[in-house]
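Lab notebook, bench 4. The sequencing result for the construct came back, and we need a structural model before the next group meeting so we can plan mutations. Quick request posted to the team channel:

Model the 3D structure of this chain.
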Amino acid sequence: MQVTQSASGKMPDGKRITQLDGLRAIAVLMVFMSHAVRSQLLWSGVDLFFILSGFLITGVLLDLRSQNTWRTYIVAFYKRRAQRILPPYILFLIVTSVLFGWAWTHRWYLYFFLMNMPAFAPPVPYGHGVLWSLAVEEQFYLIWPILVYLLSERALAWLSGVLILAAPLLRWFATAYFTRHWLIYTALPFRMDLLAAGALIAMVWRHYPAAIFRWGIKGSWLAAIIVFALCMLSMHPWFQPGADTALVNVWLYELILVGYAAGFIWILSGRCVNFLRTRPMVYLGRISYSVYLIHLAALVFIRQFTRHSLASAAVALAVTLCYAALSWKWVEQPILQRHADAEDLHVPLPNQS
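Done. Here's the predicted structure in token form:
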């Protein structure tokens, strides 16, 4: 069904799909602003990260599967992930230890990416609260490579569709049993629809790129309508995650999923997205992993010295960007240059057969 393709993050003409870097920049800015000014909807920037991750990782895995045996497939994948994720993560833990102390070392679940499990939510210290999403992705990495290797692409597409439908049903059912919305917001079973949506888009992109190129612009219209509706509805306390009702746990997250998936398809089509290809946006997307890791710690630290929210946000943003730029130059980029296949923006190329 699928011929062997490269996952080098380039189009058939050799050009990188840079608008996905720009999309990542938007996502990380949304997350930063949600913590800086406590907006009602910008927290959903992390949902964009999940869709993007499902898209990219599925493409990488399908490419690896077509070229390797099980052992080399799984070793190559986890080697890539370790090279990309662990160095900035370890640096982050060292820096936050210098700023806030070593109390986190007593929280063993931080060593095993279990920060989103019910037993440990949300007692994570200082800026470590953002690590729940990293835990979701790491748990996804444990399960999805096995399924990709064992299933045909058709079966994998059907499974993705089932997961997209199952997640809101699980959130609806679990609402009555969880006393805090945080558990539904952070646990993989309740967030798997975003990752599955990204995976499904990856498979459509591989086999039907012409449809995305042709119809993707319509995704911008649907995304705009849904985002507008979300902005209006989120002004009401009863339509915010903290309300923790079945209505919110199903429809708030579903509207975000549909809206962001439609927007993602539009951006993937490359039509009218030149603003995402500008150098500042592309660079911010490249360094977004460290931006995400450190931004909350920077906000917490700066707020110790000023209570002015806008001033603390501005200073924290400057500190965050400087830190991420240094991490990219001296930690992440050297590793990526030595191990070219560790780059985390591998894009599954469309089937050209």
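Confidence is low (pLDDT under 50) at residues 1-10, 345-353.
Will bring this to the meeting.
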